[in-house]
Every structure is written in C-alpha cells, then in structure tokens.
C-alpha cells in the first residue's frame, strides 16, 4: 500500500553536516519526498512526540539534545514506506545497528542516532499531523511512479 511516513533528521545530523547525505539515501532508495521543512522543537512537542519515554531517566538529556539545533522534518512516501524506512534506519543504538543501515553507517550512539522514523501506520499518521500542516504535504500524483514500481505494485 502507498504509505506516508515521518522522518526527522536530528540535531546531531545537522551539526555533523550530514543532512544532505541522509536525504540522498532516501532519494536514491526511491522514496518520494512529499513534504520537507526545518523547525525548532520545544518542550511541548517533544513531551508529546516522546510520550512513551517521559518517565525514563534519560528523557531530560534526550529532550535537550533534540532542541540543540533545528531539525529537518520529512514526509516520505512509497509502497510500504513505513517499514521500508524503519529497515533503512536500523536499530536504535548505532553501535548495534547493522552496517548498511543509516544508524549502522553513521553513528556510535544510542541517542545521537541521526534520524527518527515512525514505527507503525498509527504513529506515522499522528506524527505527520504533529509536524506538518495539511498544505505542507504535497500530492505528487503519478510523478516517477512508472520507474519506481511495476504496474501491479501500486
Ligand atoms: N533513546 C535514548 N536512550 C535509550 C533509548 C532511546 O536516548 O535508551 C532515544 C534515542 O534517540 C531514540 C529515541 O530515544 O531514537 C526514541 O526511542 P525509541 O525507543 O522510540 O527508538 P527509535 O524508534 O528511535 O529506534
Ligand atoms: Mg520510536
């Protein structure tokens, strides 16, 4: 199914000059960019976004690290995009993430781990609504679709 998913390029990625390189990996894979912008996160949005981690001892430093610079938010679209992007992202801890995944190739940290990616259809929907207004996500129509997929795949 054609899906949309949310990716955040975290402050560590911005600081290390890896924004273009990471966007390039998603582009080369064949995911279509349906939305993209820079924004500064704050306490409120991070408490919502990381609600499942609010009670953890590392929540404070996680929040600080996510506010250090602006982040780049992307809406990526493709067939099974949610699971495809999670697979490309790799395990949370960069030290354990497989080589070939983004975290496996670009980081050594369990926290400064380059990207956030939605983990299910429910969270993708909620997270896209959290970070994008409806008019910031573009209808790409059939753009490039015949090159990306067979006719019976979409
Ligand atoms: N995180 C952390 N310490 C941990 C687990 C997670 O700092 O022990 C941070 C890390 O940046 C991670 C984010 O919290 O990406 C969200 O955690 P989650 O378990 O949802 O991992 P993800 O979905 O990003 O792989
Ligand atoms: Mg998560």
Write the layout of secondary structure elements.
Elements: E1 2-9, H1 11-15, H2 19-29, E2 32-39, H3 43-49, H4 59-67, E3 71-79, H5 81-89, H6 102-106, E4 115-117, H7 121-131, H8 145-148
Antiparallel strand pairs: 1-3, 1-4, 2-3
Could you characterize the architecture of this molecule?
This protein has 154 residues and is of the alpha+beta class. The protein has a single domain, classed as Nucleoside diphosphate kinase-like domain (Alpha-Beta Plaits, 2-Layer Sandwich), CATH 3.30.70. The chain is built from eight helices and four strands. The protein has helices at 11-15, 19-29, 43-49, 59-67, 81-89, 102-106, 121-131, 145-148, and strands at residues 2-9, 32-39, 71-79, 115-117. It has a four-stranded antiparallel beta sheet, with helices on both faces. The longest helix has 11 residues, at 19-29. It is globular. It starts with a strand and ends in a 6-residue tail after the last helix. The model has no long low-confidence stretch (mean pLDDT 98).
Q: What key attributes describe this structure?
A:
154 residues; alpha+beta; Alpha-Beta Plaits; four-stranded antiparallel sheet; 8 helices; 4 strands; 18% strand; binds uridine-5'-diphosphate; binds magnesium ion
């Amino acid at each position: 199914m054609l899906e949309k998913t949310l990716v955040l390029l975290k402050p560590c990625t911005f600081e290390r000059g890896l924004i273009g390189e990471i966007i390039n990996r998603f582009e080369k894979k064949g995911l279509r960019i349906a939305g993209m912008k820079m924004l500064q996160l704050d306490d409120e949005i991070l408490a919502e976004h990381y609600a499942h981690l609010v009670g953890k001892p590392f929540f404070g430093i996680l929040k600080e690290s996510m506010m250090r610079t602006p982040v780049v938010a992307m809406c990526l679209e493709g067939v099974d995009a949610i699971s495809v992007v999670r697979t490309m992202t790799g395990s949370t801890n960069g030290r354990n993430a497989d080589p070939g995944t983004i975290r496996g190739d670009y980081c050594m940290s369990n926290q400064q781990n380059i990207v956030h990616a939605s983990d299910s259809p429910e969270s993708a929907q909620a997270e896209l609504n959290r970070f994008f207004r409806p008019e910031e996500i573009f209808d790409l129509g059939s753009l490039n679709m015949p090159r990306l997929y067979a006719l019976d795949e979409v």
